Amino acid sequence: MRNSPDDGSFDDNGSGNRLFNTSTASLPQDPFLSQQEPLVPTFLDTQGCLCQMQTDPSSADDSGSGTDTKPFLWQCVGNQTGAVTMEPSGKWYKTRDGAEGTEADLLRLPVNSAAHPLDAATPMTWDLQSKSFVKLSDGNSKDNRLGAWDAACTGENRTQFSTSFYGANEQLKNNQDPIAAAPCWRPGAVPVQIQNVSDWQTTGCLEGFMCVNNTANSLPQYCPPIQECQLARLASTVCQLNGSNVGMGPFEPVVCQAGRYCPPSDNGTVTRECPAGTYCQAGASTPTPCMRGSRCPPGSTYQLFLVPVGLLVALDVLLVVGTLLLRRRRHHRRRLKANARGHGVPSLGFLEKQRVSAGSSIAAVIARHRYKRVQDETDRVDEDCEMAPVMDATYVPGRQDTWNGFEAALDIPEQLAGSPIDVLNSPEAGLTPEIRAFVSSMSKATDATDFGLSFGFSELTFQPKGSQRPILQGVMGEIRRGTLTAVMGGSGAGKSTFVNVLMGKSEYTAGSVTINGAPGKLRQYKKVVGYVPQNDVVLPELTVRENLLHSARVRLPRTWKDADICAHVTAVVDCLELSHVSDSLVGSVSKPILSGGQRKRVSIGMELAAAPMAIFLDEPTSGLDATAATSIMRTLKALARLGISVIVVIHQPRMEIFDMLDDLILLANGQLIYAGREADVQPFFEQLGFHFPPHANYGDVVTDIITGNGRPYKKTGDISKDALIGHWSASRQGSHGDERTMESAVPTSQSHANMQRLLRRRGAPLWRQTQLCFARAMLQQYRALATFWYEMCLATLAGFLLGLAEHAKQGVLFTGSYRGAYSILSVSSDLRSAPELALLVAIAVGLVGAAPGVRVFSEELLLHRREAEAGHSRLAYFAAKSAAAAPRMACACLHFSTPLLLLSAAVVPWGVAFLANLLYFYCVYGLASVVSMVVRREDAPLFATMLSLIVGVLSGAAPPLRTVRGWHVEWLWRASPGVWLAELYFGQLVGPFAYLYDVEQAADAAGFALDHLWRNLGVLAAIGTLYRVLAFAGLFAGKRIRM
Predict the structure, then answer these.
(1) What pTM, to 2 d.p., does this model score?
(2) CA-based Rg of the chain, rounded to a whole angstrom?
(3) DSSP-derived secondary structure letter, 72
(4) Does residue 5 have a cis peptide bond before it, meaning omega lies within 30 degrees of 0?
(5) Mean of the per-residue pLDDT values for the chain?
(6) Selection from 437, 514, 507, 445 nearest residue 481 by Cα
(7) Which position has the higher pLDDT, 853 or 731?
(8) What is the DSSP string of 719-750?
(9) Region annotation Disordered: residue ranges (predicted)?
(10) CA 951 to chain centre
C-alpha cells in the first residue's frame, strides 16, 4: 500500500496512532482509524476492509524508477491492527475501465477518488510461490491463503464507513482528536471486544440484536456508558436517543427496538417494523402473532385482548337482559293474577280447580275460600306441579266454623283415631278432601294400612366415650303408634340424647330398642322418620313449595312419578294451610317474609313431604306466641290422629297444649321419672304427696316437680329427683299393664319384609339427588343476583387495579442477562416482576374468592345436616354444590382476568392465563370450603380471607423460592397453590425469551422451572381437588371440630 512512512505518518513511535491518549495498538481494530496516512484513493468496503488503489505488483519495473506505466488494481486488506506493509496481501480487484498509469499518476488522485471503480466480480489473491495473482471464484473465495479478515472483504464501498474514515483522516491531519473514528462515545473510554472473528463467523450477531456496523473487521465491542445511559441501564432500560436504541460506540451491538424485529437471517443488519396482527417486544427476532380478534396495529409492542372484552360484555348483557326478561315475565304473571282477583275470581290452586270442574259453581268456591294467595315474590321453578293430578281428590277450603287443614282431623271420632286407611277414608270419619288426599298419598308411600311406628325400649343406656357417667341409664318404656308423645325434663335431663338414640343418630351402649316390635339398627329407619329441629332450618332463597318439593323428590319412593310427588306436596301445603303463601319466599330470620308460625309449618312440611311414619320435633313451640304455638300443637295432634307417631321435646307447655298430649316421658338425670299417659300423670304424682292447685297450669306443675322444684306442691317429704326416679323404678311394672300399650312384641315376618322393602325403595338414586341439589343450588344463586353482581364488580375492580399497576411496564415483565458474550451489554436484570405479578394475582384472587367460597357451604350446613340425617346423600349434595359454584367461579375469573391482561399486556397467552387463574380460583374456593367446615359461620369469611392471603404470600416471589430452598422448607411453599401459579407465570413470561436472555440462569436465581406448564396446571387442579376432599370429610367431622 502506498503510504508515507517518513513524512506522512500520524505517529512516529512505532506503536501506532494514539486515540484519546491511548495507543491504538492495545485497542480492538477500528476500521475508521487509519494506521498511516492514506496517499492514494482509499475507501472502506461493507466488511470494514481498507481498500486502496495500487499499481500491479506483478508488472516488472524495467527502469526501476517507478515511471513505468502499469495497470491500476485495488487491494482490500482486513486486518489493520499492525503496521501496513508493502506486501501484496488481501484481496485484489481489477478496475472496471482497465486504467493504467505510473505511481506518480496514482499519487495525484485524491484519497476519496472514485475515478476508476473496482470490478468486484473478479477477486484475486497474490500467490507468494508463483509471484502472480490467482483468481478467486465463489467456491474458493475463502482460500486458506487468506486470513479470516481478508477473506471477508467484498470490495463494495460502504459510504457510511468511508465517510467516517475520511473524517477521521482529516481530523488527524489537522492535529485534532479523531472524533469520527472514536470507538466509544464516552471520552477516554476504552472498548472491550466481546466476540472474536471465529465466533463471529460461526454465530454472527446474537439473535434479537442489531449489529449494523459489526463485521469480521469491526467486531462487536462493549463501551462504558455515559452517565445518562448508565442510569437507564440501572433502570432496566436501554439507552435511547430520539426514541431509538443506541449503543455506546459505533461497534456496540444494540438490542432490537420495541415495535420492530431483527430477522436472524439478516445477521442483525436489518430491522423491520412489526406488521399488523403481530407485536414485537424489545429484542424481538420474529414477530409474535396476536390472538385472533386482538388489536395489534403496525409497530405494536403488545397486544390488546379485545375478544375477551367482547365476550365479557356479551356475557354481562345476556345476564342483565335475561334477568330483566324473567322479572318482566314475573310481573306479567302477577298482573294476570291481580286482574283475576279484580274480576271476583280468586287465584285457585289445582285442588280448587278440580272442585270447580267437578260441578261446583265458582261462587261456591269463593264463599268457602278462606285464604288469598299473595303476589309472587319470585318465579316458580315447578309450574307444572300446579296442574298435577292429586290422587283423584278435590279440595274445598274449610268453612269458618270448622277446623281447617290438618286440624280438621281433630273432628275424627275418638274410636276411629289411628284406624286403618280404609276406615279413615270412609264417610264416617268425616275427613275433608285435602286430608283424604294426604292420607291416600301417605298410604301409597308407606305401602301400609297403618303408617305409624311404635317404639319400645328396655334398660336403654348411653354413655359417651371417655365419660365417667352415662347420660341415659336404664330407660324403659314405649311410644305407641299414632300418639302425640312429649319428652319433658329439665336442663341436662337427657331429653335430646334420648330422642337422638331413638332416631338412630346416636348408638346406645346398653339395653335394647324395637321398632314395630322388631329389633334392629335404628339408623336404617331414618328414611321413614322425620326430624324437625328447634330452629326453622329452611332455605330462605326458595319458596314454600320449592322447599317441600325438594325434600319430597329426594326422600319419597324412587318409583314415584313427578306428578305424584307434586300432588303429595300440594296436599301437604293445603293441609298445613300454606296455600296462600306457597309461592312466597321463605326468607331468613333477619329478613323475614313469612311469620314465625308459617316458618315452623314449612319446617314441619319438609318432613311431611317425605311421608314419614314417625316425626320427632325439638321444641316446636319455641319462639312462637301462644296462639301460633297452640295452632302448631293442634296440627301435630291431628297428625297423630291420622296414625303418624309424633314425638316432641317440649318445655313448660301451656295448659291447652298439655291437654293435647297423649303420652308423657319425663326424665331427670338421664333416668325415667314417669312414662305413660298424660291423663295418668296427675294421679301418679298425687300418690307421691304432690298437690295440684285448682286452675293451675298442670304442665308448669309437672315441670317444677321433675326439676326438683316441687316444694310448693308438697310441704313435707323428699321431693328430690333421685327420690322420684326411685319411686318410678319401684312402681314401673304396673305402668305397663294397659291393654293399649305397644302391640305385639314380635312382628310377623310378612310385616317385617314389607318394612324392609319399603326402606329399600325410599329415596332418589344418587344421580337424581345430585341433579336435584344442583338445580336447587343454581336457583339459590339466581335468587341472590345482587350478591352475584357485587362479587363480579369486586373481581373486575381487582383486575383493573392490578392491571393498572402493571400497565407502565408495557408487558415487559422480565429482563435478564443477555446470552453468551453479550452479557456484558446487559441492563439491570428484572427477575422479580414475573413472580410478583403471580403474587398479586394470588392475593387478589384470595380477596375476591375467599368470602364467596365460604358461602357455598357455611350458610346451609345446618340444613345439610338435617337432610343428611334424613337420608340425603352427602356425596350428591357436596358434588352438586361444588358444581353449581363452577359457573360463578368462571364468571368471576373472566371479570378478573380480562381487565388484568388487557392493562398489564403480559406476553402470557390469554387462554393459559385464564386457565391458570381459574384453577387458582378453584383452589381458593376449595380452601374456603375447608374453612367453612371447621370455623364458625360468623368467623369463616375473615378466616378464609386471611388464610388465602397467607397461601398467596407463599408463592415464592418474596422471599424468593431459591432462598427458601436454602432454608430447607421448600416443601411448605410447594404445599401452597400460590407457588405453582407463580412458577407457571414465570415460565410463560420468561421462557419465550430464551433466544435473547440466559433464562436458565434466571430460573436458577428465582428457583422456578421454566417448561412445566402442564405439571403446574395439573398440580393446581390436584390441590383444589384435595381441598374439596378435605371439605367433604369435614361434612362428617366438621360439627365436632368446628371452632
Answers:
(1) 0.84
(2) 48
(3) E
(4) no
(5) 83
(6) 514
(7) 853
(8) --HHHHHHHHHHHGGGGG--TTSS--SS--HH
(9) 1-31
(10) 14
